[in-house]
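Notebook, p. 212. Picked up where the previous page left off. The plan for this session was modest: take the two constructs that came back from the sequencing core last week, fold each one, and keep the raw output in the notebook itself so nobody has to go hunting through shared drives later. Recording the first one now, exactly as returned: residue sequence, then the structure token string.
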Amino acid sequence: ISAYVHAGQDPQQAFDTGASWGTWHTTAIEWTPKRLSFFLDGKLIGTTTQGVPNVPMDWIIQNESALNGESAAPDSSAQIDIAAVSVYAYTP
């Protein structure tokens, strides 16, 4: 499980947890005007002050079926189950 910041930076910012998709987890993104912080199961996995959006962000939640190479092997699949999603407004 990883978090990424795609803000036109090369390389992109990546925060890897080493955690498996094999059990349920709680993830969170904290977005303030000057900082992005990423959490897994209540623990901070990464924070940055670079590439922080000043316009609305898009959420991309994905699970890869091709980890090595450009395309997935025939008959491969990936599944992710999401129990709930919440969004809160930032109030300074």
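Okay, moving on. Second construct, recorded in the same format:
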Amino acid sequence: MPTPRPQVESLQERADRIGGWLGGVPDDYERGGRRMFELLLHEGLTPSSRVLDVGCGALRLAYWVMRFLDPGCYCGIEPNIEMRERGLELVEPEVVARAQPRFSENDDFDLSVFGERFDFVFAGSIWTHASKGQIRA
């Protein structure tokens, strides 16, 4: 009798299991992130592109981008540290170690905190999460 294969949990199933609010539509974590990644590919994203993800949240886009980009090419800004930490639970530790992402918690939209120029700046849904003061800024 063949040994049963272990059931592999999909990214969406892991997101559902982790629970809590992960930003965006709850049952669309996997598909939504993949769509954002495909959009960047369509716009010319290459492995050596430098990407800044403003309002990276629970790493919906980063899950895909960190697998594709060269080490050190992904940066994310997210003031909600708890949400970002939930996202890091979804990205495999070996992917994070290889990608060498950098994060900032600044909430004043200071895009210079990483001290470099970016090829892509992605801001998926910051208006819905920003305060009126942040929007004015």
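Notes on construct two before I forget. The mean pLDDT is 87.
Flagging for discussion at group meeting.
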